[in-house]
Amino acid sequence: MTKAELLRQIKAKRSFLCVGLDTDINKIPPHLLDDEDPIFSFNKAIIEATEDLCVAYKPNIAFYECYGVKGWQSLQKTWAAIPKSCLSIADAKRGDIGNTSDMYAKAFFDESVSGLGFDALTIAPYMGNDSVTPFLQQEGKWAIVLALTSNVGGLDFQNFTNRDGVQLFEYVLEKVSSWGSTENTMFVVGATRGEGFLNVRKYAPDHFLLVPGVGAQGGSLADVCRYGMNASCGLLVNSTRGIIYASNGRDFAERAREEAVKLQQEMEIELEKAAII
Amino acid sequence: MTKAELLRQIKAKRSFLCVGLDTDINKIPPHLLDDEDPIFSFNKAIIEATEDLCVAYKPNIAFYECYGVKGWQSLQKTWAAIPKSCLSIADAKRGDIGNTSDMYAKAFFDESVSGLGFDALTIAPYMGNDSVTPFLQQEGKWAIVLALTSNVGGLDFQNFTNRDGVQLFEYVLEKVSSWGSTENTMFVVGATRGEGFLNVRKYAPDHFLLVPGVGAQGGSLADVCRYGMNASCGLLVNSTRGIIYASNGRDFAERAREEAVKLQQEMEIELEKAAII
After folding, report:
1. Active-site residue (options: A77, A93, A106, A262)
2. Which of A73, A162, B50, B177 stands the most exposed, by the fewest C-beta atoms within 10 Å?
3. Phi and psi dihedrals of B88, rounded to 5?
4. Which SUPFAM superfamilies does this UniProt record tie to the protein (chains A, B) (predicted)?
């Protein structure tokens, strides 16, 4: 999906919501457990209940990989169930030397090889240029590079600061921006970082940012928009637990939809405030 | 596998060789392509030809993941074929927030959940403490954390330097060392970094280091030992392409063995020089 298509979807749906599909078999409604593939049954119902409200889905690969072959089958079916009108993001945080990153690009982008054709993959930047550039080679495919993450350990290394006062995450933004463009690179910036977005926008004013951490992790949508929105929206705000685990009963999909509606409505107001719609 | 067991294996085999199983279907001997699972056939033959000469095997997960479900099946069989007397390392370079890293720990360490029970997993440190500590919870399991990698892009971020002259990889060594112990943490240090090992050993004198980059990538075993060996050996030196692709013919396993023998013999001399055997 190109940047222009993504923006078109955002305007049409009046939403920049990404729904996280971190589906844990221990948290899904018990009545699904007799299904042949409970994780896929759950995901399919969540997708069907929310696809008009969000512009992206983001399965975290760990939640599939932990079930080995069976988990990989669930992932394949889940990817295939994501509508083509939504950006499909494999949240895998991969990163390796060049020839190995080529293999990861096949794993997540090339359906003819792996059975998976995601639009985007999250990438850990620690190994540098050749760990990122293999994901920037095809139009409509995206590398979403970790910059400033939402977790408690995020600042252990990300605010390591050089003698000019530049923090590691800022240097990552600056360097990685120079390897790709706003058409193939996004950055992960945690919603919990509030004013940190101002620093991020100094280095990446025009990039889309993937923003986890709203909801369960405590980030505020209003703050994210105040500090992070740009003229092309420039934000994909992810919510996982607040939506997919809104209920553990037979009404889980309807309750997920209700939670997605609440976020979509807040987002619509923000998009109007910014005169994007 | 505990550190004491690993050192026992090193002394018994007079080797600290790790064989990389980055098995590319486009590089294996053509006569294997008619097998039901050519990648596994290749790996099994390589393992049987080298298991008395090395102390570890390291499949790089990208080379399996790129074939989706089928690749995961090959990986499972490959892991099961690694003898228990060798350290089995999943070279996956994972790293995510705490609850997700828990899932990755299940994926690679917990056979009852995923079908895989590797001894060790490589980890990218960018996301900090909660991305590493979930892998330090079980005796005999190891987190092998990226410090100073062998690839061309390795220095894009790893030598980002703070106002006290400390480089990022040194700070990673210092911080991560404080989270675990020499019984559950190793570091990745590329063989191409030569005297960089002196800096590494300032921060991690007693840890085992996993050292890729000897052979195809140009690193020297003699240099690695000169600057990196400690009283408990402290090195696992990986070779992949030089061993597994020594021949593309029906003699591939014998030729792989010959290359492994050469490295084992060099390693035996180094272990004797250091009075470890």
Report:
1. A93
2. A162
3. -100, 120
4. Ribulose-phoshate binding barrel
